[in-house]
Amino acid sequence: MISLCLIFVSLTSGYAVGRWRERRNGGVEDSASLRLRHILQMLALFGGIPLAAMLSLWGLRRPELRLLTLPLLGLMAWSVGGMMALVLARLLRMDRAATGSYFCCGAFTNIGAVGSLVCLMWLGESSIALTALYRLCEEMFYFGVAMPVARHFGTGDPALFARPYRSPLLYAVLVALALGVVLNVSGVRRPEFLGTVASALVMAATVFFLFSIGLGLRLSRLRCYIPESLGMCAVKFLLVPVCIVGAARILGLQHMDDGLALKTVTILSTMPVAMNALIPPSLFRLDLDLANACWVFSTLALVVVLPVVDVLLPLL
Q1: What single DSSP character describes residue 273?
Q2: Architecture of the CATH domain 2-315
């Protein structure tokens, strides 16, 4: 499976380079690695992904009003994931610091890099625009809801909290979607080669982002959080998809473009913990090791999850 290989080759390559540079630097991450991580993430988040979304939305055929339900399904997925994580944290008798981290892992989902790539490889370039619509409210939810909840469980500095309308990434996504919609309704036909460009941008953004994550990846203490990580996998790969796919079918997305919208939502609802889930624990003194373990375990679980999703998609 090309998408799965690309994900793990990018991640493990970054990890190998990062550990090699650490050994050369006496076991400490050097400033050059930090700068490289930052540059690669900025290229992916502010360049490749928004531009690909704009080009794909421009070329989207016969847009329907039902597509406006995609952002609502995204909000529902993150909310359900966070709430399920809180319930499971209570059952596992976690303390406040661990509960806050667990909530972040349940709410934050890797859609931009991994989700976009899997949709592209399996469903084609048209799914990029649907992915962008699904994650339209992502930044608003993360900064407007998830961050305050995480801060409630920790003791972080309130000055570190950023309002949703101050998020540069939110601006980038909104501008890209607006341009794509304007070009779509203007009647200007998109050149065919730009579809290939959009696909290439998603693949490049995924490689950049996952390689940068691998550079800073730490695998220490993972074995201390196996029950919690398995529970998070159940939330991400079972409970959330059941809720979101059920809601999508009720909304009738299976009748759009031979089920393209429903298949896109299905893939995006089965994505692992996002790297962003490590940010609130760092800011608000939560359990960072727990968040790191859930992120690594859920990402590695794609080896099993993606083949299962591939089998189930034709049955939707």
Answers
A1: B
A2: Up-down Bundle (1.20)
Q: For tokens 């793990």, what's the residue?
A: 8
CA distance linking residue 67 with residue 130, whole number of Å: 8
Number of Cβ within 10 Å of residue 316's Cβ equals: 14
CB-based contacts of 69: which residues, under 8 Å, 6+ apart? 248, 251, 253
Collapsing DSSP states into helix, strand and coil, what is residue 147? Answer: helix
40 neighbors 238 (Cβ within 8 angstroms): no
| Residue pointed to by tokens 């399996």 | 122
CA distance 278 to 275: 6
Token pair listed for 308: 């299962």
Per-residue pLDDT tens over the stretch 281-295: 877 788 888 988 998
Each residue's pLDDT tens digit, 203-262: 787 787 778 777 766 666 677 899 999 999 999 999 999 999 999 999 999 888 788 999
The CB density around residue 92, as the number of other CB atoms within 10 Å, is 13
Encoded amino acid at 67, one letter: L
